[in-house]
Amino acid sequence: MNEKAMRKSRWITTVSLIIIIGITYLSAVITEFNFIDSVATLPKALSWIFANLWITQETWERLPAILGKLNETIFMSIAATTLAAIISLFLGLMGSKTTKVNNVFSVLARLIASFSRNIPVVAWSLILLISFGQNSLTGFLALFVGTLGFLTRAFIESIDEASQSAVEALQATGATYAHIVNKAVIPQSLPQMLSWILFMIETNIRSATLVGILTGTGIGYTFDLYYKSLNYNAVALVTFTIVIAVIIIELISNRIRKVIL
Amino acid sequence: MEMLRGGAQPKQTYIKRTRTGRINIKAGNKVELVTKWTIAMLAVLTIMAFFFFDYTGLQLERAITETAYNLKTMFLEPTLSHFSWGEAFHQIGITVGLGVLATVIGAIIALFLAFLAAENLSKPWISKSVRVVVAFIRAVPTVLWVLIFAIAAGLGSEAAVLGMLFHSIAYLVKAFSESFEEVDRGILEAMRATGSNWWHMVTHGVLPSTFTYLLSWTFLRFEINFGVAVAMGAAAGAGGIGFELFMASGFYFDLREVGFITYAILIIAIILEIVSTQLKNRYFPAAAKN
């Protein structure tokens, strides 16, 4: 790094820091956020958490009911992810530069993905709740739509990354589109795709809690009920079971990832 | 087979054969096996899921037609009825502001924790224990953090920002410490040889060479935090556009307003996505994960 580049990088650093400080100050004003207040509440809040969020003997009796709901949530996120992955695979094949059929479908696939990904899962769950009512399918569909957009983008990237030479070689031998996809594209990008699917299952279990609070399904609803009835011991137990479930699923998918990648 | 057995017999250990005696061209492919099993498990679990679901009060046909109609109303006739344009901008500002605060404060705290978590700047046991704590924090959904802080700190932006901080810190510690670990070993060694202390190494060796990466990771997190701030407004009463969305659909059943708010969120989310895609292409060509 010569002196000029160094001076330039220092200049960029200073300017960006000033801009960030300015934006942060503006945000604090508009949200009426008080730095000193929040620093002061932190120890209070932590001591409250340590004093109240204990799992007591009687809350353990609620464990079977909680585990049932947790089960529903886990199944919900796995089903939403897997089914979204199947559709995302087609959208990904349409959207990728290597395997697109024509430009119209390519743009359309990317548009669908962007639309379903950028509308927050909150909006989907609130819209679906109106007519689907309070049942598992609402949560499932809300997760499904958000996952579809995310996985399509990820799959397009994985397919683009896979080497083009195999596709070209097959094209030269006169292979059909189905052959190319089946023998060249899928085998090369499958590990990457699977890794994304596993990542999405982990993410979805966490978002399923949020969706559950909004739509009244699964473990989120259980949490909300205990939370609103001020039963903080049960709140602690629900949180604890979610943490365990998420960590177990993370460990399993890390294991799988280590082998396939 | 008999022909092979007699005469110049090839060593069996070199060639793996299937039961029928053919040469196994997929010899010892653990990867393929695990891949197949994972896909099979996911398929089975998905099918099982639909038996476990609770379908109380569901009338599928009516629900689908109604949702289609609702979506049409939402997206084709968006209007504002319960608040003005000015108010709409103010609420969007609050949501963006919550995202900014959680990201910036999170980045500052994460920076210091990342020094402790990076293997080349810290002791092994410190970096291990920071990682375990971070993994625990990540496992608790953000909405639960916000709700738990709302009891302790009272409703308002403080609880929302504090709750959102946790995941931002966990995410950024992982990203930052990985960037630190990629710093050229030679730089650190050269500085150590000149007798500089830990603090000098950080401020003159590590930070200058990773600063742009840190900034882009922080922006990527901001994109996520905007979505989280919308969700917290709706699910934890943190205010902002998410809360308005919740009110419009849950209390007023005003689909046109829901449509307007959705469009507003969509526009900002797409702008953030375009910026962060460009950052990614520029600084992380190997498609940054997570």
Quick one: CATH superfamily of the largest domain in chain A?
A: MetI-like
Q: Overall pLDDT of chain A, averaged? A: 86
Give a count of the beta strands of chain A, DSSP E runs of length 2 or more: 0
Structural class label of chain A: mainly alpha
Task: Give the overall shape of chain A.
Answer: globular
Instruction: List the uncertain runs of chain A.
Output: none
* Strand coverage percent of chain A: under 5%
Note the total helix count of chain A.
10
Number of domains of chain B: 2
Q: Could you say what the CATH architecture of the largest domain in chain B is?
A: Orthogonal Bundle
CATH domain class name of the largest domain in chain B = Mainly Alpha
- Mean pLDDT value of chain B: 83
Compute the separation of the termini of chain A in Å. 36 Å
Topology, please?
The complex is a heterodimer of chains A (261) and B (290).
Chain A: H1 3-30, H2 35-52, H3 63-95, H4 103-118, H5 121-132, H6 136-161, H7 164-172, H8 177-215, H9 218-228, H10 232-260
Chain B: H1 2-5, H2 30-52, H3 60-76, H4 85-117, H5 124-139, H6 142-153, H7 157-181, H8 185-193, H9 198-236, H10 241-250, H11 255-283
Helix pairs in contact in B: 3-11, 4-7, 4-9, 5-7, 6-7, 6-9, 7-9, 8-9, 9-10, 9-11, 10-11
Domain ABC transmembrane type-1 (chain A): 70-253
Family (chain A): Belongs to the binding-protein-dependent transport system permease family.
Main location (chain A): membrane
